[in-house]
Amino acid sequence: MDLPKSLRDARKAKKLTQDKVATQLGVSRPAVGQWESGETTPEPKNLLGLARLYGLDVEALADLLPGGAAAVFRAYSARNHAMSAAAHDLTDEEWGLVLIYRQLPDEDKAWLWEQIHREARRAGISLDDAGQQPE
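Request: output the structure for the sequence above.
Response:
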């Protein structure tokens, strides 16, 4: 089976629309359609998101990619798996917030960082292990 057909079949099996998938991944609806038609191939982060959303085996998806893309995807997947293992207690909601944060422009990240820290201080939460504000 090829990647576009696998993605289309998996989406339909989950009874999801392209619009819903696009919203979940933070991409446009046409992007999802292009992946399913084979016009474009999802970036590794989106392919990993699709695997999670559809409950697909990451290795099986990698096997459907051309050689170089498969290697990039496997490396990306391994990195994310390691990060996920390090933060295994993150809920799906928390992980979703991380994915949204990564897509924000730098000035919005800085603003959000300040808001979170302000609220944490107000709630008496220690900020010692919270990391540094993005530059």
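The chain is about 70% helix and 0% strand.
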